Amino acid sequence: MKIAVIGAGVIGVTTALELVSHGHEVVVYEKGSGIAQQASFAASGFMGPGLVNSWTAPGMFSRQFKNWFTGESGIRLNGLLEFPAAWVWQWLRACRDPEFSLKLSSLQRLAFYSQEVFKGVTEQYGLSYESSPGSLMLCRSEADLQKVDLQLSLLKDAGILYKTLSAADTRAIEPALSTETELWGAVCFPQDAVANCRQFTLLAKQEAEQLGVVFKTGHEVLPLSVSKPRLLHVADKESELFDHVVVCAGIHSKAIVHKLGIHLPVQAVHGYSLSAALREEMDAPLCGVVDAKHQVAIARSGQRIRVSGMCEIGPARQASEKNTGLLYKVLNDWFPGAAKTQDNVQVWRGARDVMSDGVPVLGLSGVPGVWLNTGHGNHGWACSSGSARAIADMVSGRDCEIDLKGLGIERF
């Protein structure tokens, strides 16, 4: 079959690779000038289900509200006139949803499946990219651990390995951790890993091209029409009819399917990252770490240190020094000598598509021939390979290897 994939981030590229491996003719449309230039460009790189969590955890809003007054919150709210009040209200309702655990379980199940698919794809195509095994969630106090009790209990029920460590055991694993910062302990996820998202995406794109996938960058797909939803119109360019269309366009997915009567409760939430050259090997992290209090991640990627985090809701035209300041603070708290932060630091700010309930939309849109693989938020990298395999199986009429309950558009 002839299939169009809209979007060439990690979600779109992995979807294209899976579809072409199923024997389909695939064309990828990307409005930008290149591959993986948006949310996939400077992602934190964490893979696996251990650190996957939902935006809609019970009590999340109240905790963040308290932290706003101290400037320690990982969430920033911008503007008033353009503030997305409707989406925030839906988010608050989702935080009180008694079925929260089912949503988180669906998200973790997808991440676990994605990790397995990712390993198989890496081995199948012989892909080589920057990576390091294991991850740690650093807890400054016991209260930090209590905030993720539900997340951990669901991991235990699913048979996913993790271990709670004392401060001494944590420092034995990560000897470069600063002794000046209070450390209660950590949660270790030995099966998780950190890998370079953009590097992998570019390699996967090369493999997809060799198998026949056509990538059309600089091609902005116009909103799909009700009369012919599988006829793609590209701004100032050609129109082309497909058997199926898979929408993987991140925050732009909402506008693409809106005329079809598909209403995605999605919001652009901006995240930040700092990438700086490695200063000293012995002062750098050996695995990926996440500060549980601030939800800021620190990882080594080749000869660089990447610090990522923050969720910026509402209009903002440029990067905020206040937001990047928190990233620098957390880096200095844990690994003060790891990176050359005085020169040539790459500051990145990118939009992530976050659904109001914190869980992606995966599957048939309700319109024949139009499929959705979008709304992954900050878990796009962790869930990309599994999402791609599931979509390819469904489009091809095959049974999925994973239970997709809780991930479909019908929940809205």
SSE topology sketch:
Blueprint: E1 2-6, H1 10-21, E2 25-30, E3 46-47, H2 60-68, E4 75-77, H3 85-95, H4 100-125, E5 131-139, H5 142-146, H6 149-157, E6 163-166, H7 167-173, E7 185-195, H8 197-210, E8 214-217, E9 231-233, E10 239-241, E11 244-247, H9 253-257, E12 266-277, E13 288-291, E14 296-301, E15 304-313, H10 321-334, E16 346-355, E17 361-364, E18 370-374, H11 380-395
Parallel strand pairs: 1-2, 1-11, 2-8, 4-15, 5-13, 11-18
Antiparallel strand pairs: 3-7, 5-7, 6-7, 9-10, 12-15, 12-16, 13-14, 14-15, 17-18
Question: What descriptive keywords fit this protein?
Answer:
single chain, 412 residues, alpha/beta, FAD/NAD(P)-binding domain, ten-stranded mixed β-sheet, six-stranded mixed β-sheet, 18 strands, 31% helix, 25% strand, globular
CATH fourth-tier homologous superfamily: FAD/NAD(P)-binding domain
CATH class placement = Alpha Beta
* CATH architecture descriptor text: 3-Layer(bba) Sandwich
Task: Please report the distance between the alpha carbons of the first and last residues.
Answer: 30 Å
Radius of gyration: 21 Å
Helicity, as a percent range? 25-40%
Assess the beta-strand content as a share of residues.
Answer: 25-35%
Average residue pLDDT = 87
- Contiguous uncertain segments of 5+ residues: none
Counted beta strands? 18
Overall tally of structural domains: 1
Structural class, from helix and strand content? alpha/beta
Order of helices and strands: EHEEHEHHEHHEHEHEEEEHEEEEHEEEH
CATH third-tier fold name: FAD/NAD(P)-binding domain
